Amino acid sequence: MAQVLLNALVVGTTYALIALGITIIFSIMKIVNFAHGQLYMIGGFVVYYFNVVFGLPFWFGLLMSFVIVGAMGIAMELFLFRPVMLRVKREEVTMLLAMGTAVFLESLALIVFGEKQRGVPPIATGVVELFGARLPTGRIVVIGVAALLIVALMLFIGYTKTGRALRAMAQDREATALQGVNLKWLSAAGFGLGTGLAGLAGGLLVAIFAVHSGAGTAISIKAFLMIMIGGAGVLSGAILGGFVLGVLESVGYALLPGSMTFLVIFLIVIGFLIVRPNGIMGKPWG
Amino acid sequence: MAPNIAGSPTGAIAAGLLVAAIYFVAVPLAFGDSGYFLSVITTMAGISFISFGVWLTFAIGRINLAQAGFALIGAYTTGILVSRFGVSFWICLPLSGVVAAALGGLIGWPVLRLKGVYFAMITLCITEACRLAALSFPAVTRGAQGIVDLPLPGDLSIFGFVLVPAFEKGARLPFFFLAGALMMAGLTFMWLLDTSRVGAVFRSLRQNEDLASSLGINVAKYRVVAFMVSCFYAGVGGAFFAAMQQNVYPTTFQVIDSVYFMVYCFVGGLEFVIGPLIGTVLLMLSFELLHEFQRYQTVIFSGLMILCILLMPNGVLSIFRRRQTVSGEKPDA
Question: pTM score, two decimals?
Answer without folding.
Answer: 0.83
